[in-house]
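User: Can you model how GCB sits in this protein?
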Amino acid sequence: MIELRRHLRRFLFAVLFFVQFGAAQVAPLIANIGARHNTSLDGPWHVIVDPYDVGALDYRAKPLKNNNAFFKNYKPQSKSELVEYDFDHSDQLNVPGDWNTQRESLLFYEGTLWYKQSFDYPQSAQSRLFVHFGAANYQADVYLNGEPLGRHEGGFTPFDFEITDRVRPQGNFLVVRVNDSRERSLVPALTTDWWNYGGITRPVTLVEVPQTFIQDYVVQLDKGSTRNIKGWVQLSGPKLQQRITIRIPEAGFSQEFQTDAKGRADVSFNAHLALWSPENPKLYKVEIASETDQVTESIGFRSIEAKGTDILLNGEPVFLRGINLHEEAPLRPGRAWSDDDAKTLLTWAKELGCNFVRLAHYPHNEAMLRMADQMGVMVWAEVPVYWNIQWENPQTLHNAENQLQEMITRDHNRAALIIYSVANETPVNDARNRFLRQLIQDAHATDPTRLVSAALQNREYVQGDRIRISIEDPIANDLDVLGNNEYIGWYTRTVADADRIDWTSKYNKPLIMSEFGGDARFGYHGDSLTRWSEEYQENLYQHQIAMLKRIPFLRGTTPWILKDFRSPRRTLPGIEDYFNRKGLVTEHGEKKKAFFVLQKFYREVQSARLR
Ligand code: GCB
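Assistant: Here's the modeled complex, given as structure tokens:
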């Protein structure tokens, strides 16, 4: 019944938006906004917490059309007029930032919250202006000066709206209704083992571009090549046919291309380049100029392939010494979003000996990917197709496909990014297989240069004294790299059972052990059989590592997880306190014993590879 009511509410809101105002469009994503003339709208925004959606619906639950609708930001015109909201006298929250950790009363809040920011913008007549959101979780309805711009769905990917014809030199107000209610049909769906941080969690920026501008481009090495750069450039605007010049000054490269009637130029050329790798994360300044616009971006070049059970980086076999990460800030509560957050998290990963991170379980912020490029850390990026999804629902599939596209579009020039993952621990059945195959196909079609994986589960066979665990999943045939999550010694079997386990695979493909681990409360000590103690976790890692060394087709590991993270599923008082404690460091940066076990293993792997 509650479920039904929620659906009704969501449906009514969609009616409000798309019937009353017509379907406003999310504009195509502008690449590399940091290189553009841009104005930050970050800082304190006025907010109204609206658990009953009174800013959108009247008491009959019908869409509000009058000045009571919060997006109107209406002020009483006389002392008698009834207006029951007032952004300017409401409290403020910082953008970017989740709402849960900025105000104690909002820690567990899920629902609607309205944001308002005012700004002036003296715009030049020749340019176009967009408002760009790094991300808002989960659904964002955006309004400028009392008119709707559009809606975006999905909590972890960027979106923008063109406001060229709507912006005023002075006194603009931008209102955003953010709703993070969980629903069965969404991506992710109802249940996750991470905090559902709501709000405008990433930066908001005004981006100014010329009338016809370089909207996006791919400049990356072709699949399997270390010389041939292949890609495209896309223009947007009235003058679509233009001459394009691509220059890589440091490599002495410059060449011209021509866009077609649709504003697109396919580009392909050879260049002598120092290849990007974790040991030498070389980035080149790449300049792309059209007749009307130009952008510069730091781009690295490397090839990544799967061959038999090997992963080849620049043609050489590589072992991915990884760790899982949630997008949680180090050393302070809440979502991570900044360069500093990214640097701290990746510095911890490097201290552990990592050359690879799995950014679980949704697309992390852009700063993270750019920092990984600079620091030389390879990346697995993932969409939130997690646990239980409505596999039969075509809208759910469409939603997942859209989030995947937005993730790929934002990061397709990042050398660090080598693997797209389309799912985590999903149950094998026909509808799920169809759903995931579609996503795998989409990822391959959109970006043929990177590898596609998913975190799968496995089957166990007991054979006398030994246990055989087999990687078997119908979608494995479609993947380039297999991921597998296992919790031997935590959710299944005993820690010591790992010594009796042999792994087999039906596929001639590389395996990444994408999760394993167990919880420990930092500073809680006991013997190696005492749950929640650092010694238990330490022992678990020791047995796991001994087992992992015996898997012939293993090409990477990302234990669960770098840092303790908030989760509403983890209620045990004194131990969990609403945190998943499988971190190797705490939320305050303290290192648990298991940290050093993994560090030792990664040092061994590294020196064995270098020999
Ligand atoms: C898993 C999930 C991860 C959880 C983890 C756990 O299998 O993929 O999201 O947080 O286990 O700690 O249970």
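A couple of observations from the model: DSSP finds seven helices and 33 strands in the chain. The pocket of GCB is lined by residues 193, 361, 424-425, 485, 515, 560, 580, 582 (CB under 6 Å).
User: Helpful, thanks.
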